[in-house]
């Protein structure tokens, strides 16, 4: 049987990347993309060479959060896609940077989506990287499955909020990983309370410690947490997330957990 040329490219293309992390969540809106960005920025600041790949076809939010406009450069002859260079050590590509019309919705059937995801993973010229952070579509459907099955040696970073309804979906994602024999690097809790702007006290508006407890119960490593921070949301909306994430998020910053676990 012939070997699919894209399969070959995929293997070759990802061979120079030491750690491939797929960021997954059970449901949308829990901050999966925000956490993927935190990991990418944090790891690049720590001196690693990092790529951030956004394959969330229906809600590609990475370009907006990082303030990347325009289109990715595509070298049509060689069928290669050049990542956008944010700064030394951080390169980004998103499905949105390949779409002619950014406002248009993606209405594709399964095989088309699978093709696009595989192409994104096979054709982007990352060069050598220490970490590739992949922002995968939420849930346990065809799309995260394609990501998981096409990246050899990938490990999963699960993202949840402390709320029970998010934790219930997280357990499904965990089951998905176990059924597919996908190693899980650990769990990140997002929107882990906020600091009251009036009294400075901690407000656990989505419940307390749910992510950390779930990690402990499921035998997962707890990688860290991000508080809910209005500045984070405003920076993401305004395309200034990179500069905000450069500030110190403390001992609990998720990228620190990743450095500890992955290396
Ligand atoms: P997902 O990728 O899971 O759909 P996003 O990362 O797009 O979620 O986040 C959803 C929304 O919540 C965005 O507007 C984002 O800016 C905001 N958000 C995510 N995490 C935080 C946080 N820790 N603090 C404040 N806003 C956040």
Automatic annotation (TrEMBL):
GO cellular component: cytosol
Cited PROSITE patterns: MRP
Source taxon at top rank: Bacteria
Annotated binding of ATP, by residue: 26-33
Coiled coil: none
Keywords: ATP-binding, Hydrolase, Iron, Iron-sulfur, Metal-binding, Nucleotide-binding
GO molecular function: ATP binding; ATP hydrolysis activity; ATP-dependent FeS chaperone activity; iron-sulfur cluster binding; metal ion binding
GO annotation terms (biological process): iron-sulfur cluster assembly
PANTHER family per the UniProt record, alphabetical: CYTOSOLIC FE-S CLUSTER ASSEMBLY FACTOR NUBP2, NUCLEOTIDE-BINDING PROTEIN NBP35 YEAST -RELATED
Main function: Binds and transfers iron-sulfur (Fe-S) clusters to target apoproteins. Can hydrolyze ATP.
Protein name (database record): Iron-sulfur cluster carrier protein
Organism: Desulfoferula mesophila
């Amino acid at each position: 049987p012939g070997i699919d040329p894209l399969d070959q490219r995929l293997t070759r293309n990802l061979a120079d990347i030491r750690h491939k992390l797929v960021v997954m969540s059970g449901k949308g809106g829990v901050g999966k993309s925000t956490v993927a960005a935190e990991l990418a920025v944090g790891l690049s600041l720590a001196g690693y060479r990092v790529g951030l790949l956004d394959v969330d076809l229906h809600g590609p939010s990475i370009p907006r959060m990082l303030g990347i406009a325009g289109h990715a450069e595509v070298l049509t002859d060689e069928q290669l896609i050049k990542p956008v260079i944010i700064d030394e050590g951080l390169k980004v590509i998103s499905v949105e940077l390949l779409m002619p019309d950014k406002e248009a919705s993606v209405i594709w059937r399964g095989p088309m989506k699978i093709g696009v995801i595989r192409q994104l993973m096979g054709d982007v010229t990352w060069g050598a990287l220490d970490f590739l952070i992949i922002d995968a579509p939420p849930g346990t459907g065809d799309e995260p499955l394609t990501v998981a099955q096409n990246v050899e040696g990938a490990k999963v970073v699960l993202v949840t909020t402390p709320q029970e309804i998010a934790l219930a979906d997280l357990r499904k994602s965990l089951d998905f990983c176990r059924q597919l024999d996908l190693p899980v690097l650990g769990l990140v809790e997002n929107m882990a309370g906020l600091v009251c702007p009036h009294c400075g006290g901690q407000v656990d508006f989505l419940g307390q410690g749910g992510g950390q407890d779930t990690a402990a119960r499921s035998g997962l490593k707890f990688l860290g947490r991000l508080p809910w921070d209005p500045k984070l949301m405003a920076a993401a909306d305004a395309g200034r997330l990179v500069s905000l994430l450069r500030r110190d998020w403390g001992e609990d910053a998720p990228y620190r957990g990743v450095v500890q676990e992955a290396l």
